[in-house]
Amino acid sequence: MKLHFKSSEQDSLSSIYAKRLHRPHMGGDWHFHEEFELIYFLKGQGMRIVGDHISNFQKGELVLVGQWLPHLWRNDVDKFTVENTDFIVIKFTRMFGDVNLFSIPELLHIKALLKESNQGILFSKKVRKSVHEELLQLTRAEASEKLILLLSILRKLVKSKNYQKLSGPNFTIPKEVSGENRLQKVINYISANYSKSIGLDDISKIAAMTPPAFCRFFKTRTNKTFSLFLNEVRISKACQLLINGEAPIKQICYDVGFSSLTNFNRTFKSFKEVSPSNYRDSYSNFRQHNLKEVS
Fold this sequence. Notes:
Elements: E1 17-23, E2 26-27, E3 36-43, E4 45-50, E5 53-58, E6 62-65, E7 71-75, E8 85-92, E9 95-96, E10 99-100, H1 108-116, E11 121-123, H2 125-140, H3 144-159, E12 163-165, H4 181-193, H5 200-206, H6 211-222, H7 226-244, H8 249-255, H9 261-272, H10 276-282, H11 284-289
Antiparallel strand pairs: 1-8, 2-7, 3-6, 3-8, 4-5, 4-7, 6-11, 9-10, 11-12
């Protein structure tokens, strides 16, 4: 399994890829590509990894991912996941034909936003609402209308000052594909097997390295230790299960890979600053009313 350049599948008549997709399961590889990617979830929930940032995604989320920034959206199929994902993906580059569109003076404000997207940007609810209709229109648009709509959307995103950068500033953006194959294999393995016991010896074998060499490699590439990264993935999944409000906390503890309820509670609180039970209670309104449907 190799980390490869993932093209935007653009057709010959458009420089912009824009599709609305419906999938029961998202579990692709941790990957990067040349295009900027704007992803908007109308339905669905799961785990999100952008650079060194690990958290949950929910419906209504809008994220801009910069060029070459590795990312992964994943939702596992289980008895608590009853909703298919419904999302919009828009991909584009700086170059439109032979023109670097965002280098012209009138669009320098958008160029600045695209530079910040090197860390990934999560936009506020207010901003999401302001571009909702245009995002839907973009998936149905043709030819020049796509460019007009994209620029209008980016202009509104630029005006927003209320957004969250996701990946840390010290995360290393890949410079070439060949150097990232080992890390991609490790990230994919963790995201698919977090519910199992994964020791340092196990993951070092996946990376085909000695444990000391792997620890240095992983910390250098992600700015995190392996154990911290694994716990972040597990806690992210635990949050998803707690929000759904179905399983007992003790069961969730074991389902996400912890062998001790005490350790789970302590680790959860260290990440979320509240206990699992208090976290679940804080989402009681979410469970009762859910998020308003984005049509």
